Amino acid sequence: MSAASDHNETESPKLDFIREIINKDIESGKHNGRVQTRFPPEPNGYLHIGHAKSICLNFGIAQQFNGKCNLRFDDTNPTKEDTEYVDSIQNDVRWLGFEWDALHFTSDYFEQLYDWACDLIKKDLAYVDSQSFEDIRAQRGTATEPGTESPHRNRSADENLTLFKKMRDGEFKDGEHVLRAKIDMASKHLILRDPLLYRIRHAEHHRTGDKWCIYPMYDYAHGQSDSIEEVTHSICTLEFDTHRPLYDWFIEKLEIYPSKQYEFARLNLTHTIMSKRKLLELVEEKMVEGWDDPRMPTISGLRRRGYTPESIRKFCEEIGITRFNGMTDMVVLENALRADLNKRAERRMAVLDPIKVVITNYPEGQVEQLDAVNNPEDESAGRRKIPFGRELYIERDDFMEDPPKKFFRLGPGREVRLRWAYFLKCEDFVKDENGEIVQLNCTYDPATKGGNSPDGRKVKGTIHWVHAESAVDAEVRLYDHLLKIENVADVPDGTDWKDSINEESLTVLKGCKLEPSLSETGNDFPVQFERKGYFIVDQKDSTAEALVFNRAVSLRDSWAKKAR
Ligand code: ATP
Ligand code: MG
């Protein structure tokens, strides 16, 4: 089974405010009409669905405007970064369907960044401060009160250069000195009150090893890396809009390529979390199986869960790009997947909670192959044969011993349609010593093959089933929200956000019975189990002997019903 390859991507993306700016910039000949973006993750965790929004925006703009988009690892924080993350991020960007023009690491620019810091010192625009972080923070002032100047603020350029060189050469301990920009301790922009440029950190870096013991701060490294790559539109999330004056200040003072920063609202999704740091806590404390646990909002978790790149791209397009922070309902993401899989996933039959059916008037030992349509939404998906015989499994809850009138499935004396097969009538049932029903004795009507009765007899219910003898056993995992609450920001101060983790987010069903065409472990595209949702083979835990399926999403939004 495979995805239809001619899947149509949507029309051209909506014209959001960033694309409007780019259109104007191209028209006015700014940056010589060139468009260059970048996606700049810090390799301190796996990418999540929030990053997908940024990826679709940055790479999408490059595609649309005939521009370029780089992948740049913002690896300025040696203690939290790791090559495992570097590899997973590249894998995830590609899986989403994008390819970068150039791959860069901020750490490749450390020498250039150091030289520019020296230039700032020479221009009397940076100085070495020898106070503690705490003192520096305490002198910052507030929105209404100016900050206090450091006693080291007026060191000579020569003294600063010497000290900065010694910082680099490892002559000081962590925290003994920092390099600060010399701007204005009374600026109305707090970010301009002599921000830190470098700190000492004797730590092994995943790429530069022990070459450096001073590391640039985000603000200093980020904008300058944009300039080095001649990024035209540097797109980041809204919380950085207060940093923009500093972004522009560096460019002006260093007289380097005039990249411009634009901010958009980050993605927040209900019932989950959008922070690598918090996701890492779940991984480290083993509250989930790993970064790719199907409950995680990571790209790797969503992939394992059965999400398709197409559905994630469509979702990102639907939510759009704005400057208003808000919450997107998880249902929007799920619906994007449903819409995609409804068109592309083949239908199969699987019984998750089986009860045995014996068709007493069906010849013993006989098996016939019935004709079934693979996907009613897509003729090109073709048809398949499914075995039918005397013993079947159906869902336990498709039978009631004493059903109410409106129950259109099986009960004693009642008749239903077996999908792609025959009408089936329940004659009686067998209970075990505990009073549990273990078998239904039924009869079928051979004249109803294909699901219609020649005498015009109507049945209301159609149920799925699996032929007992040829059924494949599988474990099926059902997932629910990672968080019991909608918004992790609602967790009161002083309480651990992890108390909001939904302990019932995973249900494991054993002994499920699948139609034989599902026996292959290699299928990496989801299928629809009729009436049950969309499922995918768990590529990590499945073996030829023991199949495991994950439910990507149910057919309908069951949460909406519960909430009402
Ligand atoms: P986290 O707090 O999860 O680590 P981050 O912003 O620190 O997120 P980065 O690796 O620095 O993560 O992010 C890379 C890019 O992805 C940045 O441009 C950032 O703005 C963007 N990004 C991160 N989270 C989101 C989100 N929730 N919605 C949209 N864009 C995001
Ligand atoms: Mg970060």
Automatic annotation (TrEMBL):
Q: Which intervals hold domain Glutamyl/glutaminyl-tRNA synthetase class Ib catalytic? A: 35-328
Q: Which domain of life is it from?
A: Bacteria
Please indicate the residue ranges that the annotation assigns to the motif 'KMSKS' region. 273-277
Q: Name one GO molecular function term.
A: ATP binding
* Motif range ('HIGH' region): 41-51
Supply one GO CC term from the record.
Answer: cytosol
Q: Where does L-glutamine bind?
A: 74, 218
Gene3D superfamilies in the record:
HUPs, Ribosomal Protein L25, Chain P
One biological process term in Gene Ontology: glutaminyl-tRNA aminoacylation
- Enzymatic reactions: tRNA(Gln) + L-glutamine + ATP = L-glutaminyl-tRNA(Gln) + AMP + diphosphate
According to the UniProt record, what class of enzyme is this?
A: ligase
Q: Which UniProt keywords apply?
A: Aminoacyl-tRNA synthetase, ATP-binding, Cytoplasm, Ligase, Nucleotide-binding, Protein biosynthesis
Task: List each copy of the tRNA synthetases class I (E and Q) anti-codon binding domain by range.
Answer: 462-538
Q: Where is the Glutamyl/glutaminyl-tRNA synthetase class Ib anti-codon binding domain?
A: 345-445
The UniProt entry, under Pfam families, shows: tRNA-synt_1c, tRNA-synt_1c_C, tRNA-synt_1c_C2
Where, by residue number, does ATP bind? 42-44, 48-54, 237, 266-267, 274-276
What residue ranges carry the coiled-coil annotation?
none
The similarity comment for this entry is: Belongs to the class-I aminoacyl-tRNA synthetase family.
Quaternary structure, per UniProt, is: Monomer.
Q: What is this protein called?
A: Glutamine--tRNA ligase
Provide the species name: Thalassoglobus polymorphus
Q: Which gene encodes it?
A: glnS
